[in-house]
Write a structure and sequence with these properties.
Chain B: Keywords: Amino-acid transport, Signal, Transport. The complex is a heterodimer. Chain A is mostly helical. Helix content of chain A is about 70%, strand content about 0%. Chain A has 14 helices and 2 strands; from the N terminus they run αααααβααααβααααα. Chain A has helices at about 5-25, 30-55, 65-80, 85-110, 115-130, 160-185, 185-195, 195-200, 205-235, 240, 245-255, 265-280, 290-305, 310-315, and strands at about 145, 235. In chain A, α11 packs across α12 (about 265-280) and α11 (about 245-255) packs parallel to α14 (about 310-315). Chain A is globular, with a radius of gyration of 19 Å. The N and C termini of chain A lie close together (about 10 Å). Chain B is built from 13 helices and 14 strands. In chain B, a hairpin with a 2-residue loop joins β11 (about 365) and β12 (about 370). Classes of the chains: A mainly alpha, B alpha/beta. Chains A and B meet through α2, α9 and α10 of A and α3, α4 and α6 of B.
C-alpha cells in the first residue's frame, strides 16, 4: 500500500496526477506532445531508480540497457520480420539480460561506487560503437520501422490520445512494480545493500545475487523504455539510443525528483520537462538560453534539494511519527 | 501671434500624437492582408546547431525577399511570416515541435537539416495534414514511407552518390585515368555510413579499388591516426564524408602528416563547400572537390541572396541556399493555391512545376514526394572562392584534376 510521509508529498503527487489527467482536457496538442516525451523518458528514469535509488548503485550508462531494448526490438522487426508484440517483449528481455550481464561482470570483480558508474558508461559507449559498425544493426545508418499504424504493428501514431493513454498505463505499471519491489523482501535486501553491504552480507543476504537481480529488473525497465521509443518514433540510430544524453536523462529525473522513491523519477522527469518547455516559451527567439536556465535550476536543485522534490515535499506537513514513508 | 514651444507643451503634443497613432494603427492593421504563417523546423541547438541556424537564416532571407517583392499576390499581397522552432538535434523533440507549428497555424513548413529529425517531424506532421518541404534529408527512407505530406526538394543520397561517382569517372577519364585507388573516411552516423556503403559498392565499377575504409564518430578530434592510415594505404584519392568540424580537422591532419593525394573528392563533405573552411584554411582547402547541394550562382535571386548574406555577415553555405529555395517552393504553392489551407497546400505542392528557385534544377516534379528533377553540383575550391565545375551548363570554372603536387 502506498503511504505518504507528509501532506506535502501527497499534494505534490496529487499535482502530478491532476496535470497528467488535465492533459486530456487541454485544447493544446503541444502539452500532450511534450508530456508524451516526458512520460517516455520517465520510464528510463524509473529504471535507473531501481539500482541507483534503491540499491545505491549509481550508473552513468543506462543507455546500455535502453539502447539494447530498442535495438533488439528493431533488429527483430526489420531484419527478421518478427511480429512487433513479440519483438517488444524481446526488447524488454534483452534489456534485462544486458543489465544482468553488466551487473554480473562488474559485481563479480567487486566494482562499486564511481568505478561502477564508469564501467556502465564504458559499456554504453562500446555498445554505441558496435551498433554503428555492424550491418545487422544498420551499421550507422540506423534502423527504420515501416510506418504501418495498427494494433498488430504496435503503432498508434495516428491516435495521440491512445498513445498517451497507453504510455500512462506503462508508466503506472512500472511504478506499481517499483512500489511492490520497494515493499517486498527483495526491496528490503536492496536497501540493506545500499546502506551497508558488509552488514547485509553478515546478516546472510546474498548481496551479489541481489545486486545482479536489481540490475536485471532495472535493465528490463530500461529495455522497455527503449522499445517504447522505437514504437513511438519508428527510427533509431546508435547515438539516439546509446548516446550519453539518455544516460544523463535516466539519472537526472530521479535525482531531481527524489531517488529511492516511487514517484520521484516521474516527478523529476516531468518537472524538468515542464521547466524546459517553460524556459523555451519564456525565452522564445533565443534558442539555447532555455538550456542555460535549465542548468541553473538544476544546479540549484542539486545544491539545495539533496533528497529531491519528494524530499522537500516530505518536510511540509509531516504526518506524525508513524505517518508513513517516502512514497 | 507667436507660438512658444516649451517642454510641457512638447510632452502634451507628443502624448496626444502617441494616443492618436495608437488609436489609428489598429485601423491600418485591419486594412492589411493577414500574414501567412510558414514553419521552419531546424536544430537551432545541439550538435547540428550550425546547420540549423544557417537554414533558419536562409529561410529568413527568402521570406524577406518574397515580402519585399509584394508577398503572395494571389492572396492580396499577403506577407509570409515565419514561425521558427528548435528541434534541439533530437528526433523526439523535432516531432513534438510539429505540435507547436500546427497550433501556430502554419500552412506548411521546411526542415530539418538531418534525416533522423525529418523522419520524425514528417511522421508527426502527417497527423495534421501538414506539408513538410525538406531542406536537407538525404536518407531514402524519407520518401519511401508513402506519406502524402512529404516533399523532398533536394536530392537524396542515392542520386548524390551516383552523380558524384559519374563526375569522378569523367574527371579521371579526361585526365588519362591516373586514379587507381581510393580511401574512404566517413562519420559513423546514418548519413556517413549510408553514403560510404554506396561508394564502396559503386566505386570499383569505375575501375577504382578501395584500399582503405575508415569510420569515425561525431564528434572526433584527433585525426592523426586516420591520416597515417590513409598515408599507409597509398591511396590515390581520398573520399571523405563527414561534418564540418571533423572535415576541417581531418584535412589539417592530412597536411601535417604529409599525405600525398591526387585529390580530395568529397561527397556531401562538411567543409569542402563551406566558405568559412576556405577562408580559415585556405592553403589546405585548395583544389578540394565536393559534390553537394548548391545554388545556381548566375541567377539574379542567387546574387541578391549572396548580397543579403554578406550584408548580414552570414556565410553562404548550402544550408542557406536550400532553406531559401524551399521557402520559394512553398511561396509558389501558396501563389497557385491561393489558400493557406493545409490540404490545399499538399495538393499544390504535389502538382508543383516550379522552376524559379535559386537551385540549378529543372521544373519541380514530385514523384512519391521526391523531386525527380533535383540534382547535386560539383564544386572545387580555387583561391578564395568555391567554384562550380559540374554540371557544365552552370560551371563557373574548368576543373583541375588531379591537383598540382603539394609542397
Amino acid at each position: 500500500m502506498m503511504r505518504f510521509a507528509s501532506l506535502g508529498q501527497a499534494a505534490l503527487v496529487a499535482l502530478v496526477v491532476v496535470y497528467l489527467l488535465a492533459v486530456y482536457l487541454l485544447p493544446s496538442q503541444v502539452w500532450m506532445g511534450f508530456t508524451i516525451n516526458a512520460l517516455a523518458m520517465s520510464i528510463v528514469a524509473l529504471s535507473w531508480n531501481i539500482t541507483g535509488g534503491f540499491g545505491g548503485m549509481a550508473s552513468f550508462g543506462h543507455a546500455a540497457m535502453y539502447g539494447t531494448g530498442a535495438y533488439a526490438s528493431a533488429v527483430l522487426q526489420v531484419q527478421f520480420g518478427v511480429n512487433a508484440w513479440v519483438a517488444f517483449a524481446a526488447g524488454i528481455a534483452a534489456g534485462a539480460l544486458m543489465g544482468a550481464f553488466i551487473g554480473a561482470l562488474a559485481f563479480r570483480y567487486g566494482v562499486k561506487g564511481s568505478y561502477f558508474a564508469l564501467v556502465t558508461l564504458a559499456f554504453a559507449e562500446v555498445l554505441r560503437i558496435c551498433a554503428s559498425a555492424f550491418e545487422i544493426t544498420g551499421a550507422g545508418r540506423g534502423l527504420q520501422l515501416t510506418l504501418q499504424p495498427g494494433v498488430a504493428t504496435l503503432q498508434f501514431n495516428n491516435d495521440r490520445v491512445l498513445t498517451y493513454t497507453l504510455l500512462l498505463g506503462i508508466v503506472a505499471l512500472v511504478m506499481a512494480l517499483t512500489a511492490w519491489l520497494k515493499y517486498s523482501r527483495f526491496g528490503a535486501y536492496l536497501v540493506a545493500v545500499r546502506e551497508n553491504e558488509d552488514a547485509a552480507r553478515a546478516l546472510g543476504i546474498d548481496t551479489y545475487r541481489v545486486k545482479v537481480t536489481a540490475m536485471a529488473i532495472s535493465g528490463a525497465f530500461g529495455g522497455l523504455a527503449g522499445a517504447v521509443y522505437l514504437q513511438l518514433w519508428l527510427f533509431i540510430d546508435s547515438s539516439v539510443v546509446y548516446g550519453v544524453s539518455i544516460s544523463v536523462t535516466a539519472l537526472i529525473g530521479p535525482i531531481i525528483g527524489g531517488a529511492g522513491t516511487v514517484w520521484g523519477p516521474l516527478v523529476g522527469t516531468l518537472g524538468l520537462h515542464l521547466l524546459g518547455e517553460g524556459a523555451k516559451t519564456a525565452l522564445h527567439g533565443a534558442p539555447g538560453l532555455n538550456f542555460v536556465l535549465y542548468a541553473l535550476v538544476l544546479i540549484a536543485a542539486l545544491r539545495f534539494l539533496p533528497q529531491g522534490l519528494m524530499g522537500l515535499a516530505a518536510r511540509i506537513g509531516v504526518l506524525g511519527r508513524k505517518g508513513g514513508d517516502d512514497a | 501671434m507667436t507660438h512658444h514651444i516649451n517642454r510641457r507643451g512638447l510632452l502634451k503634443a507628443s502624448g496626444a500624437m502617441a494616443l492618436l497613432s495608437g488609436l489609428a494603427s489598429p485601423a491600418i492593421l485591419r486594412a492589411q492582408t493577414p500574414a501567412i504563417k510558414v514553419g521552419v523546423l531546424e536544430p537551432l541547438t545541439g550538435n547540428l546547431a550550425y546547420n540549423g541556424n544557417q537554414c533558419a537564416a536562409g529561410a529568413r532571407f527568402a521570406a524577406e525577399a518574397i515580402n519585399a517583392a509584394g508577398g503572395i499576390k494571389s492572396m492580396g499581397g499577403a506577407p509570409i511570416e515565419l514561425v521558427i522552432v528548435d528541434a534541439e538535434s533530437r528526433p523526439e523533440v523535432a516531432a513534438a515541435a510539429v505540435d507547436t507549428l500546427a497550433e501556430a497555424g502554419v500552412c506548411a513548413f521546411t526542415g530539418a537539416s538531418a534525416s533522423a529529425l525529418g523522419l520524425a517531424s514528417s511522421q508527426a506532421a502527417a497527423k495534421y495534414d501538414l506539408a513538410q518541404v525538406f531542406s536537407v534529408g538525404t536518407a531514402e527512407a524519407i520518401v519511401e514511407r508513402g506519406l502524402p505530406n512529404v516533399f523532398r526538394f533536394t536530392p537524396g543520397v542515392t542520386k548524390i552518390t551516383a552523380v558524384a561517382l559519374e563526375n569522378l569517372g569523367l574527371l579521371n577519364e579526361a585526365a588519362g585515368k591516373p586514379v587507381k585507388t581510393a580511401a574512404i573516411v566517413h562519420e559513423d552516423g546514418p548519413f556517413g555510413s549510408q553514403l560510404a556503403g554506396i561508394v564502396e559498392t559503386e566505386l570499383p565499377k569505375l575501375g577504382i579499388e578501395i584500399v582503405e575504409k575508415i569510420a569515425h564518430p561525431t564528434p572526433h578530434r584527433d585525426f592523426n591516426n586516420i591520416a597515417l592510415r590513409v598515408k599507409a594505404s597509398k591511396a590515390d584519392i581520398l573520399i571523405p564524408t563527414n561534418y564540418i568540424n571533423e572535415y576541417t580537422l581531418m584535412t589539417r591532419a592530412l597536411q601535417q602528416q604529409r599525405v600525398e593525394l591526387m585529390a580530395i573528392y568529397s561527397i556531401l563533405g562538411g567543409a569542402a563547400s563551406n566558405i568559412k573552411f576556405v577562408r580559415e584554411n585556405n592553403d589546405i582547402a585548395q583544389y578540394v572537390i565536393d559534390c553537394n547541394h548548391w545554388y545556381d550562382p548566375n541567377k539574379e535571386a542567387s546574387k541578391a541572396l549572396a548580397a543579403s548574406a554578406a550584408g548580414a555577415g552570414i556565410d553562404m553555405t548550402y544550408d542557406v541556399m536550400v532553406a531559401y529555395a524551399t521557402i520559394q517552393v512553398i511561396a509558389d504553392a501558396l501563389e497557385r493555391s491561393g489558400s493557406a489551407d493545409r490540404k490545399a497546400m499538399i495538393e499544390a505542392l504535389a502538382a508543383s512545376d516550379y522552376d524559379g528557385s535559386i537551385m540549378p534544377y529543372g521544373p519541380t516534379k514530385f514523384v512519391n514526394g521526391d523531386n525527380v528533377n533535383s540534382r547535386p553540383v560539383n564544386l572545387q575550391v580555387r583561391g578564395d572562392k568555391i567554384e562550380v565545375i559540374f554540371p557544365k551548363e552552370y560551371a563557373t570554372i574548368e576543373p583541375v584534376f588531379p591537383r598540382p603536387a603539394q609542397g
